[in-house]
Amino acid sequence: MGTEERAAGVFSVEQPLWRAVTAFRLLTLLYAVGRYAGNAHHYSHPAAAWAYMAVLTVWTFATVRVFSTKARCGWWWLWADLALVVVGILLTRSFDQAASVDANDVTLPTVRAAATVLGFAVMGGWRPAALAGLLVGLANIGERGRVTSSNAHNIVLLMLAGVAIGYVVELARASEQTLARALEIQAVTRERERLARDIHDGVLQVLAMVQRRGAEVGGEAAEIGRMAGEQEIALRALIAEGLVPNPSYEAPRRPLHRPEPGEPQDLRALLTPLAGSRVTVSAPGTPVLLPGRAATELSAAVGAAVDNVRKHAGEQAHTWILVEDEPDEVVVSVRDDGPGFAWERLGEAEQEGRLGVSQSIRGRLRDLGGSAEISSAAGQGTEVELRVPRQRVERGSTK
User: Fold this and answer.
1) Dihedral over alpha carbons 53, 57, 60, 64 (to 10 degrees)
2) Which of 48, 40, 153 is nearest to 100 (CA)?
3) In terms of domains, do 9 and 93 share one?
4) Where is the composition biased (Basic and acidic residues) (predicted)?
5) CB 330, CB 264: distance < 8 Å
6) Do 22 and 167 reside in the same domain of the chain?
7) SS3 210
8) Rounded to whole angstroms, how far apart are CA atoms 341 and 266?
9) Any residues with CB less than 8 A from the CB of 199 and at least 6 apart, and which?
10) Residue 234 domain flag
11) Nearest CA among 187, 191, 277 for reference residue 226
12) Using CA atoms, how far apart are residues 322 and 305, in angstroms rounded to an integer?
């Protein structure tokens, strides 16, 4: 593992590819030098050709460290390498005999050009590799003076290899980013679990004890115990959902953020702030997603139902909110243990101009294409069941 990798503490999937580029450059250079040594006798200017091969050799060995990592190798180094290869291809016609050139003799750099295309592929993906392969191919056509079946075949193979390798590099880079994100989430989750254990073993137990002792002592201690109980609920919600609930029962129920109509919103995030010492919110462990407007209106209807419990059942009444995420609809039930009411009281309240139930609850659900069912009996508490069908909501959100 290289210095950069050890410093970062991670392993890059690209690093082995850069090592492959370095090894391929050296191997193809040795092949090019050996191939020229075997054919030097029919060159018109062998001394000039040997001079070019010496320059190519010095350049390749001098840049071994540069081409060993992406951090050291920039685009200018790649373009310089490509320029040296292209110049060698074009000089072949000047140094070699015309008959040998016409007979499809190999160029001076020969397969060393493929190492240059490989460098472009590893650095930038398939598009830069295709461009580099095209430039090498045009140089081969210029060296031959025409398009032949041999150089056309070589160009196609070179570009296909460059594009394929570049595409694989892009996939590897995307996979590395996904893996890094997954490892980050895993680390955050483990840290959160550790903090949750510490909070549970310490803070939550202390708050629970303060709540019990305050209730036993009474007076001002009871108020302190009530506040401790609210803070315990807030911390438990934070640990369970990663959300910040509002521990005050008297706080406004409306969410501060109003999503765009088509923006998916987790209904749990909007209902969790309703939790308090007398309000219990139960929801699935996975997000309950609805379009922004539907989630906001549904949570507002639930908030109105909770407000009704506080106003009509008293401060000591307990409220339970249950969220059910069904395949075809989302169902939210709001149940309390208050005194309840006679059914005819709803009609009388509407005639008197109190439209909390008819507008704040039923009106919102009606606009969403859903329904609000209210059941109550004297001495048996009240239950409000809110249903929002997914198909209607999603169709309406696309308008």
Assistant:
1) 170
2) 40
3) yes
4) 384-399
5) no
6) yes
7) helix
8) 33
9) 235, 239
10) no
11) 277
12) 13
Cβ-Cβ contacts under 8 Å for 253 (sequence gap 6 or more): 273, 274, 299, 300, 303, 304, 306, 307
Tally of structural domains, the chain: 2
Structure tokens at 344: 């005819």
Q: What is the mean pLDDT of each run of 10 residues along the chain (399 residues)?
A: 43 77 91 87 86 93 90 90 92 80 78 90 89 89 80 82 86 82 80 66 71 78 78 67 44 45 80 85 88 89 87 83 92 90 60 55 87 83 90 56
Q: Same domain for 391 and 308?
A: yes
Find residue 265's DSSP bridge partners: 290
pLDDT on residue 254? 42
Question: Quick check: is 160 in a domain?
Answer: yes
**Joined tokens for residue 323:** 């969220």
165, 121 contact by CB (below 8 A): yes
Give the span between the Cα atoms of 330 and 347, in whole angstroms: 27
Are 33 and 53 within 8 A, CB to CB?
A: yes
Query: How many residues in total does the chain contain?
Result: 399
Q: Give the whole-angstrom CA distance, residue 319 versus residue 334.
A: 7
What six digits make up the tokens of 340?
Answer: 């309840």
Structure tokens at 111: 């397969």
- Quote the CA–CA distance of 283 and 385 in Å, as a whole number: 15
Domain range for 75 is 3-181
**Are 148 and 262 in a shared domain?**
no
**169 with 257, same domain?**
no
At 252 the pLDDT is 40
pTM, two decimal places? 0.47
DSSP label at residue 96: B
Task: Return the number of other C-beta atoms located less than 10 Å from residue 198's C-beta.
Answer: 11
Structure token digits, residue 295: 């989630």
Residue 308 lies in a domain: yes
CA distance 63 to 234: 60
In the prediction, which pLDDT does 55 show?
Answer: 94
For the record, the structure tokens of 12 come out as: 């890059």
Residue 285 and residue 160 share a domain: no
Q: Residue 61 CB: number of other CB atoms within 10 A?
A: 12
- Could you tell me the CA-to-CA distances from 260 to 257, 266, 268, 391, 397 in Å, in that order? 10, 13, 17, 19, 10
Backbone angles phi, psi at 280, to 5 degrees: -110, 125
Position 248 scores a pLDDT of: 41
Does 42 map to a domain? yes
Contacts of 307 (CB under 8 A, 6+ apart): 253, 356
